[in-house]
Design a protein that fits this description.
By secondary structure, the protein is an alpha+beta fold. It folds into 2 domains: 188 residues, Penicillin binding protein transpeptidase fold, CATH 1.10.3810; 337 residues, Beta-lactamase. The protein is built from 25 helices and 20 strands. The strands form 7 sheets. A 6-stranded mixed beta sheet has the order 13-5-4-18-17-16, sandwiched between helices. α3 crosses α11 and α15 runs antiparallel to α25. The longest helix has 21 residues.
Length: 687
């Protein structure tokens, strides 16, 4: 019918119709399978929304959820014969065809059904293809004929109420606002079923040209257009004249500074949830979801984030280092140990996730990424200890040579290789010192000597097994290794090699002078607390699609990477840090008496300090490090700051206090959970 009506306007219509028929067949399939983009909702473990992700802000509504005034307004101004015509308006198309053949411009004569087809192609099927979108809007006979034919097909299979609702769900109302549900909320803080006549008329008028009739940028145009729609409603009989006069007398009534929409990215999350949300996004992308799917799929992503743990830890780091403190970041992550999953409970920092550095914001995930460029200091001695215990080189009671200083021969040295000089921080350490006492007090010489004895390959392999999976894949700047020959850094091993290779001949690794992920260090504690079972730090509880159906999420399998006896023995050694070790003074100041595990770290020039440990069912890392353009020594104080204080911060004095503060609050009223005792088989060396 559409082809027959339009045929008089062109010569050679047969060839044109064949061309259009082919394109209609393909696009009809797309219309049947392409879902309109919907908002994805990210929630915490209790179901509270923490962020929305979207490309088009659209809140789907059914026909019954749309106010009669809205339906009457759109029909009155766009297609008064909508309920009586087929998919096309034959009368209107004939009038347009006669005008066109007389030399006039091409006229639309589009029904709401045709407009639905056009908008669906532009906003859904071809939304990622600019060239196709332009073709969908071309003022040509071919495009109109194709559109008409598809409208006829749709009109034969779909009810008018459904077509009207679908049309109102797909059209743009300026910016990122799509569909009547989102428009009602963005412009009037209401729902589509509660739209009044003036509100409905304004929105119906915008559909023709959302920019020209935008009530914020062109309020006079919007008012005139709204009143025209009201007049059309009156003349069409859907609105009494008196009501029309009253409606036209009302102001536009849109919400202030609108249209107001929620953020469409994780940067709109609350300060304690932004980095967590970003990690959940990247985790799902690694599991096979695309960024476009997450922004358009209408999923509900239920994360493992514990809102109470997250807020308490956020408060702790903000109290330690203010959000806008120049050049100092304090990250804090909490992972729940387990032998079948390591759920992430909190990922916070004194920084917030965002694009404004002046407000203390970071646009990268400084909790998940290898963002601590200076390293976690002596907390890396955990890896050397574990590797040496597995190899039988040491037990907790094994004495380690510990002179005040020493110079060690690196692996694979030749006659031109210089030895690596190492000194302890102070002279109060015994020589020799047991591994247990060494873990508590952290002498450098003893652990570099142990690392030299066990071998770099074994230590790096242990670090990877216990949790530094992504960290060791980055280079010594914390980034992806540079392999592009055009980049001059591509010839430098510090930049072109992953850390897993770069440190094979560098004994400094056990002193933690390399970039590291704060999240992965908390997962190292979780691996020990899980009896030596590594699991990926998992931020996802479930994903459901737009229809409420579960969507599987691929995850790396958990692995037993350390004998349980070794894990328990190592934890026993780590259990004295907060009682007699490097964080004991801070623990007493905080009134901390709970059994726990811990290992502090401080880099050579105090650009980074760390506390890695755990208590009850919380595996934790707290790191304070220089994150500005001009890094300096970190100094203790209120607040912690950059400076040249001569005796900089330590892991026990600056990184541990947020741990004690947060855990004291989270565990209030809960019983202690003891740390496992050592296995007798690992008290002494076995070789």
């Amino acid at each position: 019918m559409a082809a027959g009506t339009v045929a008089p306007i062109t010569i050679g219509a047969g060839a044109l119709t064949n061309q259009v028929s082919d394109s209609v067949s393909a696009i009809s399939t797309d219309l049947a399978t392409a879902d309109p983009p919907l908002v994805t909702t990210v929630t915490d473990r209790d179901g509270g929304t923490i962020a929305t992700l979207y490309d088009q802000y659209r809140l789907p509504t059914t026909a019954s959820q749309i106010a009669p005034a809205m339906k009457a307004a759109i029909v009155s101004v766009e297609d008064r014969r909508f309920y009586s015509e087929g998919g096309v308006d034959v009368q209107g198309m004939l009038r347009a065809a006669l005008n066109d053949t007389a030399g006039g411009s091409l006229q639309g004569a589009s029904t709401i059904t045709q407009q639905y087809v056009k908008n669906y192609l532009i906003n859904v099927v071809d939304r990622g293809n600019k060239a196709a979108q332009l073709a969908d809007q071309e003022d040509t006979v071919a495009r109109k004929l194709r559109e008409a034919k598809m409208a006829v097909q749709l009109g034969e299979t779909t009810s008018k109420d459904v077509i009207l609702a679908d049309y109102l769900n797909v059209v743009e109302f300026s910016g990122t606002v799509y569909g009547i549900g989102a428009a009602a909320q963005a412009y009037f803080v209401t729902t589509a079923d509660k739209l009044t006549v003036p509100q409905a008329a304004l929105l119906a008028g915008m559909v023709n040209n959302p920019n020209t009739y935008n009530p914020y940028t062109h309020p006079d145009n919007a008012l005139q257009r709204r009143n025209l729609v009201i007049d059309e409603m009156v003349s069409g009989g859907s609105l009494p004249a008196a009501d029309g006069t009253s409606a036209k007398a009302t102001p536009l009534g849109v919400r202030a500074n609108g249209p107001v929409t929620p953020s469409g990215t994780c940067m709109g999350a609350a300060p304690d949830a932004g980095f967590f949300c970003a990690y959940a996004e990247s985790y799902l992308e690694q599991a096979g979801f695309t960024a476009d799917q997450l922004a358009t799929g209408g999923y509900v992503i239920k994360t493992t984030m514990d809102p109470h743990v997250s807020q308490v830890t956020k408060d702790a780091v903000d109290a330690n280092v203010p959000t806008t403190q120049d050049g100092v970041a304090n990250t804090f992550s909490v992972v729940q140990p387990g032998q079948d999953s390591h759920q992430v409970l909190a990922m916070v920092a004194n920084r917030n996730y965002g694009n404004d550095p002046s407000q203390g914001q970071s646009s990268t995930d400084i909790v998940a990424d290898a963002s601590n460029k200076f390293g976690a200091g002596s907390s890396f001695k955990i890896f050397t200890s574990a590797a040496a215990m597995v190899a039988g080189k040491v037990g907790l009671d094994t004495p380690l040579p510990n002179p005040t200083s020493n110079c060690f021969t690196p692996p694979n040295a030749n006659s031109f290789t210089s030895c690596y000089p190492v000194s302890n921080d102070g002279t109060a350490y015994p020589d020799p010192i047991s591994l247990a006492d060494g873990l508590a007090t952290s002498p450098n010489v003893a652990f570099v000597g142990l690392e030299s004895q066990v071998g770099m390959a074994a230590v790096l392999d242990m670090a990877q097994k216990l949790g530094l999976r992504n960290t060791l894949n980055t280079n010594d700047a914390g980034n992806t290794p540079i392999t592009d020959p055009a980049n001059p850094l591509s010839t430098n091993p510090q930049y072109n090699q992953p850390q897993s290779k770069y440190f094979q001949n560098l004994l400094s690794f056990t002193l933690g002078d390399s970039p590291v992920s704060p999240l992965e260090m908390s997962n190292v504690s979780a691996t020990l607390m899980s009896g030596g079972v590594w699991c990926p730090p998992n931020p996802i509880l479930s994903v459901t699609d737009r229809n409420g159906q579960p969507v599987p999420v691929a995850q790396q399998a958990c692995q037993s990477v350390l004998p349980t006896a070794v894990a328990n023995t190592l934890m026993s050694g780590l259990s004295r840090d907060t009682t007699i070790g490097t964080s004991a003074v801070a623990a007493r100041a905080a009134g901390w008496t709970r059994p726990d595990i811990g290992k502090t770290g401080t880099t050579q020039n105090s650009e980074s300090v760390a506390f890695v440990g755990g208590v009850n069912n919380y595996a934790v890392s707290s790191m304070v490090f220089a994150d500005g353009r001009y890094p300096q020594e970190i100094c203790p104080g209120d607040p912690v700051h950059l400076g040249n204080c001569g005796h900089g911060a330590f892991g026990g004095t600056v990184a541990a206090p947020p741990y004690f503060s947060a855990m004291n609050q989270l565990l209030a009223g809960r019983p202690d959970q003891p740390v496992p005792g050592p296995d007798p088989a690992y008290l002494n060396a076995r070789q």
